[in-house]
Amino acid sequence: MLEITLLIIIFLNTLIYSVILALISVGLNMVLGVLKILNLSHGVLLAIGAYLSVTFVRSFLSFGLPIYTTYIALGLAGIIAGIFMGFTVEPIILRRIYERVEIQQLLATFALMLILEDVIKFIWGPQSWMITEPYLYLGNLNIGGISYPLYYVFLMVVGYVILLITYIFLNATKIGRIIRSTAFDREISLALGVDVKRVYTYAFTIGATLATLGGALIAPTISLHPGFSSEYIVLSFAVVVVGGLGDIKGAFIASLIMALARTITVMVFPELELAIIFIIMLLVLQLRPEGLFKGGR
Amino acid sequence: MVLLDIVNVDVYIGNVHILRKISFNIEKGEVLGLIGPNGAGKTTTLKTIIGLLPLRTGKIVFEGEDISRLPARNRVGKGITYSPEDRRLISDLTVEENILLPCWVSGSMTKSMIEKNLEIVYKIFPEIKEFKNRKAKLISGGQQKMVSIARALVLMPKLVLLDEPFEGLAPMVANRLLRSIEAMKSLGITTIIAESNLRYVKQIADKIVRIERGEIKEVVENA
Amino acid sequence: MVKTAYKCLIIYACLLLFGFIATRHIQHLLSLSLLYSLVAIGLVILIGYGGLVSFGQGAFYAIGAYSVGLLLKYYGFQNAEILLVLGVLITTLISFLIGLLAARTRKLAFAMITVAFSMIIYTLLVKFYHITGGTDGLRIPAVKLFGILPVRGRDLFMSMSNEYFIIITIFTIILYITEHVINSPLSYALRAVKDAELKAVSLGISPTRVYILAFTYAGFLAGIAGTLYAFLNAHIDPLIAFWTTSGEFVFITILGGITSIYGVFLASILYLFLKTYLIVYTAYYWQFVIGFVILLLILLAPKGLSGIIFKVYIGRKVFRKS
Question: With 0-12 CB in 10 A as exposed, 13-18 as middle and 19+ as buried, what is C108?
Fold first, then answer.
């Protein structure tokens, strides 16, 4: 009985952690695949989604709206933050560095990260923020005598739905397939009449929105403080490397692998909890530098 | 009536002077063979016409309008399409998705228009229908070539640029491609074929333009 | 090489002279700048000559610093010179080992390996808190160099602080050595590999071996800087291994023009003084200003500081990829 409980919890923890990793990494990888830029400021987008959720949830509650509406607030915050960041950052800054060498692109997005982090401090102040209402409202789930916060299950379900929608968007809509063709071959897409500039903006906005939605979803579970996102960005580097640079499906599967590795390590050797992810990353870079699942193209 | 007029065009890639004062024109409904050895500037010429490479001097006039500075997508909108030498299909998409891509991009085509054009394309290349639902990376090189040409035709363009369409094709397939190009011609589509080998082009071209080291050597009417 | 020796002596003399007049705070900042330059000089060799961008130098910096901290705490080494030598040896050895792994990869994969490595070091430092002190870090007592000179304090003439004196002395020696490395076959081999790897191979150069050497040397420099940092700062924490610290090093290198060791020397000083005074005057918003400056530099002067000079005096050429 205890083993089953343990298995269920490992299973849940893996799925929950993987959905967070996937939301960041799929977005990061989409931007990398289409724009060919590794966006170091991608993690801050997650933070912006999380911080905006704080504001939205707080104001919903202060208007006297019932607690269940805060879930709408989270979703709104994620989407608005993503669309806003997408339609500002890409046209204003990234568009100017597509022709530059890799290191300048990296440095430019690094600078963007520094700037956005301080913009967060400017708007939300240097103090910590918490919004526990959506988290507490759902209460706990009883799994074989162990109580498990239901919010995590909610987070997981919503996260997977978002990923599923993204998948369908990329595979079954016209724009989605145009984005994929631009990622695969920019020049021929140009020759087929694709407005590559617009595709870049869209792809970046979708990637950004995945990150901000991820931020909105985890906001109720953590204490937000300046710089909290710089850990998420390196985690998603690891995922992206393992899944293959630019490979969206690969990023998703890699998220699952990393999450499973972490969940198990937490139980067996907690000191290596995060290190394991980077150890896997290092191994994959050594053994299969193109990522675990190359052959996508 | 002259459809496309190329006047004194110079093209550089980086600092390398590739095309030197190129001039030629093509009448509406003609098939033009652009013949020259590898590295002569055939691909550069086609890429300049479609707008993937900028020209430094000279101009390109299409239907009486100077299109030299238009981005590629506007040239596509005016009715010029391009099938590159190395096929360049989007390998993760299916064959039919590849062919439909330009229609989705154009945005102004109705569903019935798209279906009608697709029918015409399948009439020109009936064999594509058999593997239309396979991933583009899973079909043979010859088949990919056809799909690449079909992709250029689906918009029913006024001018098609084909880069080395016969290269590497088995004689039987090449002959069928010849018939297909004739079919295109009967639809009123003007075609420029860049080839290093005169063998097939001679059978179909109305006019042959010889290019060597970035310069036009001769223009002959082909009887 | 006599010229190099004179150059280094002049720099040393200037730094010494400065130590007599500057306040201790300024000396501290300058010392820190010199440590940053040491790391960045390693990156000049790696990025500027070799074309490999390492986002993991912070890890070697941290390994140097923590070697000192842990050896002091658990093994009771009290001689600064032994700690220094051991710290540098450990770091160099580890950078050699990581070099073995990383040197086979290029470009983004190389950057990623170094990021992965530095994050492993970071998470280990944080999670093994019962050994490393976790995010609280470690305190480093002022041990004595050669049994006489404490690594921190004011036992020298006038306002010269011990740590400043030690750091400028070692810095100058390393500068001299590095000048030789830059004029050695290694650096020519590196440049050959960077420009045309296949051609270099046909000339009998092993790119992997060259990259391992360059990486180890860069790690060696970061190790020296890290050990000295432990002495200078009296307190070390895992943040120096976080990837953003490595990002700062990369930024300084690019600011300095990527291929000039004197460029990065000036860039480190500029960067650290700017950062320190920005923190003083803008409190929370120094990152904004720095980020803004980086972005402007990249958009307007892609060749770094020397690029600005180039732009102002020579022409308005904007460097692009093709």
Answer: middle
